Please model this.
Amino acid sequence: MDHEAVLAEYDRQIRREARSDSPGARVERVGAVVRQTGAAHDWNGIHWADVDAATADATIAEQVRYYTALGREFEWKLHSHDRPADLADRLRAAGFVPEPPETVMVAEAAALPMEPELPEGVRLLPVTDAAGVRLMADAHKVAFGEDSSGLGERLAKRVLTQLTETPDTIVAVVAMAGDEPVSSARMEFHPGTDFAGLWGGGTAPHWRGKGIYRALTAHRTRIAAERGYRYLQVDASDDSRPILQRLGFAPLSVTTPYVYDGGAAPAGGETR
Model:
């Protein structure tokens, strides 16, 4: 894979030409900024900013005013190759708080395993309705703990909205051990691009290390390939990055969510 060429297409297709990832959200191109604005359970934030040392601070302040007026917490999705080089320092100085960084990883779908290999007693259940979304929320709580239940509920609301209003843009699945949801994941499609995004995959502690994450990835890879998407993209945590590397994903950049709440009500939504 040509790293520079794929990075350029990722920046163009996913960031500069970003499309809304939720029926209730809109993407705007305002001056140097590409941003998304939606409801409280949607992702609100900056996909892309064409700024330099002379314009960065004013652009940051403008976005703070915009989202604060709406009462929205929002995220500036910073990538390690973004400019200017001190953009992270400028965001912190403006009141943004960084969350843990993730590695943007990409692979060609055709080169990845597509047949899920599940541990005995585990099956994959496609999520298509409110009952399935409830299982996703339960799996999220089991994987990440009670403290994450609020985020899980808001994420579930967003997924249900997508499944109901724009079902062609999302695939969701729950790994079930008997009647217990032990992991869940989703894939979001970017129509008109080469990329499908993989999200989620957190697994209950007592089921980790048994291949469930790999199986969820293979399941989604097959669907992406069938729909004609060339690349799969993941914002990988430290836990999932080694698994993805063994499967054939390559690091493209590092992304850090810089979050500004400004006293607003929590926006919810998964970091992007």
Summary: The radius of gyration is 18 Å. Residues 265-271 have pLDDT under 50 and may be disordered. The helical segments are 3-16, 56-70, 87-93, 130-144, 149-165, 212-226, 241-247. Residues 55 and 89 are 14 Å apart (CA to CA).
